[in-house]
Amino acid sequence: MKQTFIIIMILAAFTLLPAQTWKLDSNMSLTLSQSAFSDNWAGTELSNITWVANSTSTAEKQLADWLLNKNTLKLAFGQTHNQKTDEVSRDKYWEKPEKTTDKIDLESMFRFTTHTWVDPFLAGRFESQFLDLSQDEARLVNPMLFTETAGIIRSFIDEEHQLLTARLGAALRESVNRDVLIGTTKETQTTIDGGLEMVSEYTRKLKMPLEMDLRSRLQLYQALFNSKSDDLPNDNWKSLDMVWENIVSTKLFGMVSANLIFELRYDKEQVSELQWKEMIGLGLSHNFF
To answer: Rounded to whole angstroms, how far apart are CA atoms 6 and 12?
Structure first.
């Protein structure tokens, strides 16, 4: 299955060679929040610093009258630095930074433009994180999730500053974890599942009264089979998975921006309840194209 994903990525890489005809879009942002208190502050509040770096880049090109290629790369990483007080000496010190955000998300899609109500498509996606801290020893780029999807896609809005698409297809996923602890040794565990996937994406750029960039992505996945189903203690893998990502970036002046990141996630194999994440802050952002 990974071979299929690699083939899709190689095809996408070859199409990048004549880059002058590509439609490129890239937005990078750095969001910071900080609080500080003097040593004689009458209270229990302690200083902290939180930073998050985000990058979303797309490269899109009509390779032929019947074939469109779109590549999307999303990167994010952030940490929180907390100040603590020693229980004995009462001296203040800074703890080791804790990871708050970590994402690697690369997708390449080939859309067969038939100029009908819907178009067929093929897509390959790679998801991971920079640092896996689940074990005592940190591991780079682990775990990894490879997804291959084939189905139909339709653009409901396709304008210069606004785009709304939805796609439905059959998906095959391969999850690779290189740090599964079996007894006292670490082994690589691979799980394959397949099912139906629906993805809806909305992007919009506004310039009144301030320049604003809105990106929203809703993904639903219903697994129909799992290679480890006989070994699992329950049937949680049969539940519908949902990820809804939203990023709003508003430029205040120059490169200074106000950023909002909001995400809803439901994956019963991880947590049986709805998870959410919100980050608001001032930072720096820049559009390169």
So the answer is: 10
At position 259, the amino acid (one-letter code) is N
Whether residue 218 has pLDDT greater than 50: yes
Looking up residue 207, the CATH number of its domain turns out to be 2.40.230
Which pTM does this prediction carry?
0.87
CA distance 125 to 169: 14
Number of domains making up the chain: 1
pLDDT surpassing 50 at residue 19: no
C-alpha of 92 from chain center: 36
As a residue count, the chain comes to: 289
Q: Which long-range contacts (CB under 8 A, 24 or more apart) does 198-202 make?
A: 198/166, 198/167, 198/168, 199/166, 199/167, 200/164, 200/165, 200/166, 200/167, 201/163, 201/164, 201/165, 201/166, 202/163, 202/164
Contact 81/57 with Cβ under 8 angstroms? Answer: no
CA dihedral 272, 188, 199, 246 (to 10 degrees): 70
Percent with pLDDT over 70 in the chain = 91
**Domain that residue 248 falls in:** 2-287
- Mean pLDDT across 17-32: 78
DSSP letters for 115-162: SSSSEEEEEEEEEE-SEE-SSSS-EES-SEEEEEEEEEEEEEEEETTE
CB 70 within 8 A of CB 111: yes
Reported as a pLDDT band with limits 50, 70 and 90, residue 18 is low
3-state secondary structure string, 42-98? Answer: CCCCCCEEEEEEEEEEEEEEEEECCEEEEEEEEEEEEEEEEEEECCCCCCEEECCCE
pLDDT tens digits for range 239-252: 999 999 999 989 88
CA nearest to 51, candidates 105, 104, 103, 97: 97
